[in-house]
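User:
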Amino acid sequence: MGRLSNVLYVGQNGFKQFRDDTRLPSFDFAEINIEPQCENFEGKSIKVDATLAYSVVAVGCRVIFKGFLEGKEMTKSHKFLHDIRDISCNSKHCLILLANGELFRYSVERNHMLLLNFIATEGDLKTGEHLITHIACGETKNIAVTNQNVIYDIPSKIYKFDKHIKVQKISCGHEHAVLLTKNGDVFSWGNGLRGQLGHGDLENRTEPELIEALAGIKIIDISAGGWHNAAVSAFGDLYTWGWNVNGQLGIAVSNPSLPSAEFTPVVFSLPEIIELPCNNEELDLDSQFKIISVACGNQHTFIKTECGKILSSGLNAFGQLSVPKNNKRKFQDKFLIVKEDASKWSIICGTYCTILLSP
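Assistant: Predicted structure:
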């Protein structure tokens, strides 16, 4: 087996999707194993994503699937003619966007790779008239964005932004999507039953709608979890909203066993600004963190600060928060530092794991 020293993981490994030598979850960031045919990865772009049962690693023009595939544990590899620009996966399939704009869908249940051509009727891909630029995969939503500002819930066209609006990032939860524009506006649509759309209600939306509570605040990063979201402003502030059953918003969860406990809602349908350092006992409470990026898993959230600290909050059943193993709580409802001097690392949250990736 080869080993990528610039890709670390923590959390669920029950199907050996990251390492072959154990099925136990990792509570400390560790290197992942990859197949021998990908050992020559130096200088190549690396993309990583993961679900509960399998991981996906893209190196250059090759993609490797590892974990529970086709009903059993195995590793699959596929080589494309062009480098891979982005990947995004759910429990059933993985979307793979190539540098030339082609989009493939790989079924992990049927071992089938399919080229998706749902925008062919709107322009010739080869001419560059309609190229897919962004993808995001949820359990019920598979979103693609083109360079013509067209939004698809694959394969259906659902919306087109005006020409002056440019898409910066798209992220999907289980049943909803959030979209960030280059001028810092955030849109959401899909299922809103757990407040995850951020519009102050629990209603669904069929097409992108501006989150008014964030209007006028320049947002620089967003991420969607299972039923929650997080956003970072240009000032370094953190906003979270949606479902908070395990503290994934960084907001304290009610403890009904304590008679004096104040009731805290589980659903927050409007973005809440999160004060940091959130009672970190080991920190100077006067210190100010400027947050620069965020990543959300199913029920957990990671943030990175300008000074290179990584903090986490939410569900920790598989060790995905990277808190000490002797921590008996299955969750934490405030952001705590889990890694120092991490400026070089970018964060990817899988379903029940967290991945760090360096250039």
